[in-house]
Amino acid sequence: MEIRPTTDQDLDVFVDTLHAAFGRFPDTPTEGRGVWWSALEMDRNLLAVTADGRPVGTAGAYSFELTLPGEIIAPAAGVTFVGVLPTHRRQGVLSAMMRRQLAELRARGEFLAVLLASEAPIYGRFGYGPATYTKRLTVQRHQAAFVPPRAPAATATGSVELLRSADCAEILEEVYDRYRRTLPGALSRPHRWWELRAGQPPIAATPRYVAVHRAPDGVPDGYASYALGEGGVLTVDETIAADDAVFTALARFVLGHDLTTKVVFKHFPPEHPLRWQLADYRAAEVGNDTDWLWVRLLDIPRALTARGWFTDGELVLGVADPFLGEHGRYLLTVRDGKADCVPTDRAPDLSLGVRDLGSVYLGGTAPSSLVRAGHIQAHDADAVRLADALFRAERTPHCLHWF
């Protein structure tokens, strides 16, 4: 078996092989637009082929930017299009592709890789750990009354304009880009994605209504993309807001929609206060509470010194990477919001796998949770408390982008 990089001439073979791996058939593109795979970067993909030239596996990557704690923007490889034909599974094809891909990412000088896991048990063994989480919030329309706040609260003073997604792509792109730069865990959406309508709504060409919130000066600072389906179920693809007040204004808009039985917010942010703003807390039901963005560190010192920090302290981390056969001890020293990370011979305060380091990296998973789960070994109880304080982020990380 050979694993080789792809070229533009491999596009059809790559797409057909991927779909066959998942038992699906490709959509028919319209002038190259509007299909989820139309923004492929063929110079970043791999194809596994047998000795007689038959394609049996695929792996790809996108070029993204990831927002780290401290509103720091870092490049990240978005791993995707990973699949192996049913005839060749459990024969080492996937492991060989993932090992080759990690080597190529490092050769490019990249220190972070991210992915969305179609099946959670698969990618931990390759060093990826779940780092952001999302959920679905369903609100019954007849119970959607808001309660007046009992303390002074910021209120959005702008206006809401109703548009069609096909008519406001530039607004959506601009608002999303400003939003993703302030939220840890958020990924960029390259202009190419919007141009080709590659992805899911509101990027895709699928018709959607969009409630655009404008600040008093007329500048768009939020939007909610939605569609009203059968049975009066209004589904909100995503809500992008500059702050809680704008989010509340958009939530009031969709919850006040006529001919609606319930409103479903997909990718609802963790710890968002909307349920507390309703007169009936039970009117909102949480579902599909799940992982979303998985993170893998390719260069531990570079990754740890890249993000922002909010507590001073010093930890020695013993990090094992079984998939690549690597192990290192790193002295992490944080002062005044910046970190220094160097190899050390000192005894570790915490021993963990690279997948666990990926999970805590963005601040969405507390190290103490993984200690309690039996995944991180703590050699000092004080080190656990310090690790929780060090790895926290200024905001709960969240990722909306699908790829």
SSE topology sketch:
Layout: E1 2-5, H1 11-21, E2 46-49, E3 55-68, E4 72-84, H2 93-107, E5 112-116, H3 120-123, E6 129-130, E7 133-140, E8 159-164, H4 169-180, H5 191-196, E9 209-214, E10 220-228, E11 233-241, H6 244-255, E12 262-268, H7 274-277, E13 284-291, E14 293-297, H8 300-306, E15 313-321, E16 326-335, E17 338-343, E18 350-353, H9 354-360, H10 367-372, E19 377-378, H11 381-391
Parallel strand pairs: 4-5, 11-12, 15-18
Antiparallel strand pairs: 1-2, 2-3, 3-4, 5-14, 6-14, 7-12, 7-13, 8-9, 9-10, 10-11, 15-16, 16-17, 18-19
Largest sheet at a glance? 7 strands, mixed
* Poorly predicted tracts of residues: none
Give the full name of the CATH homologous superfamily of the largest domain: Gcn5-related N-acetyltransferase (GNAT)
Structurally, the number of domains stands at: 3
List the secondary-structure elements in sequence, H or E: EHEEEHEHEEEHHEEEHEHEEHEEEEHHEH
CATH-derived architecture of the largest domain:
3-Layer(aba) Sandwich
| Counted beta strands | 19
What's the CATH topology name of the largest domain? Aminopeptidase
* Total helical elements: 11
Radius of gyration: 22 Å
Keywords:
alpha+beta, 11 helices, Nonspecific Lipid-transfer Protein, Chain A, 19 strands, Aminopeptidase, 7-stranded mixed β-sheet, globular, 403 residues
Walk me through the structure.
There is one protein chain. By secondary structure, the protein is an alpha+beta fold. The protein has helices at 11-21, 93-107, 120-123, 169-180, 191-196, 244-255, 274-277, 300-306, 354-360, 367-372, 381-391; strands at residues 2-5, 46-49, 55-68, 72-84, 112-116, 129-130, 133-140, 159-164, 209-214, 220-228, 233-241, 262-268, 284-291, 293-297, 313-321, 326-335, 338-343, 350-353, 377-378. Strands 1-2-3-4-5-14-6 form a seven-stranded mixed β-sheet. A seven-stranded mixed β-sheet has the order 8-9-10-11-12-7-13, sandwiched between helices. It folds into three domains: 2-110, Gcn5-related N-acetyltransferase (GNAT) (Aminopeptidase), CATH 3.40.630; 135-289, Aminopeptidase (3-Layer(aba) Sandwich), CATH 3.40.630; 300-391, 2-Layer Sandwich (Nonspecific Lipid-transfer Protein, Chain A). It is globular, with a radius of gyration of 22 Å. Strand 9 and strand 10 form a beta hairpin.
